[in-house]
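Message: I would value a second opinion on how I read folds in token form. Give me a protein, with the fold worked out from its sequence. Write it directly below this note and I will take it from there.
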Amino acid sequence: MGYRAPRRAKALGGLADWLAARFRRHRGNADVVRQDLEREHGLTVSLRTVERAVSHLRRELRAEARATLRFETPPGHQLQIDFGETRIAVGGESVRVYLFVATLGYSRRVFVQAFRHERQAAWFEGIEGAFRHFGGVPREVLLDSARALVDHHDTATREVRFNERLRAFADYWGFRPRACAPYRARTKGEDERGVGYVKHNAIAGHGFTGWGALEAHLAHWQREIADTRVHGTTGEPPIERFRRVEAGTLRPLNGRAPFGQLRELVRRVQADCAIEIDTNAYSVPWRLIGESVRVVIAGGRISIRHRDREVATHAETAGRRQRVVDPAHLTGIGRLRPATAPPPAACELLRPLSEYEHAAGGAWR
């Protein structure tokens, strides 16, 4: 009978689920998984041992990266965004350039913008540039787990916690952010293929005299090449599909200013049924006297919110010590007190009573 080596107990027995979660979290880096094993479980094993234990997971990740899941998003529903990094000859020097690429899910129309970094400001500027380029805002923006946008993304539970600034940005523009799962390239495949398309078609082999020349080239490429090519999936040029169907489904911008110009304030509604901003007074429904409200100022528009509900809007006045009054905010004050009763102390008016009577459309009773 031939010699048979004794079977060794599996060093990683019982840790299959933990290994799978960590392997995905560390983007397929088995050596980092090995370090976590030693630190968290007190197991010192070789890199080769970990590689054998996760070999089937690595095959799955590779298969997922190659797989393509065909799905159609309704017109105006989704914009997919991503950054791609490359080196480009600019002004005779090799420069690291970050390409922001946004793709509309239905029409496959593409927007590209070059940046010198991939910080949060670049993400926001790229998204707003895409909104302006397409002339509207989709209902949803699909993004990856970039650190500039996502504070936490659990690969096992799929729990996502977006950056607070991103949530404010999304609220301002009125879209829902959605994160695709790490290592699930097919959930955002249209845009990831878009990044490769830009690198290998718009950029490949080109050099530019300066940054302005690079930007001009990208604008020309989008207009003359990317918009007019016959798309392999839809069978028609993206610009035609966009104009025929998708353009009308995007929410209009209505001249809204960039998010970077936004101001957020907290004010208490005064006894004259108004809040003060930059020496000017803006009316608020009188029932909110004494309450704190959140004020958002952007694009010449003032939005006043109470408990996450917009209660008043005004055009921002350019003067000083002006009063902007919506008569509807004063409706009902007179009906709540007896004819013989003096004005309540809670609503002492800081302006002559005649002004409020005129705004409300009649004398107090």
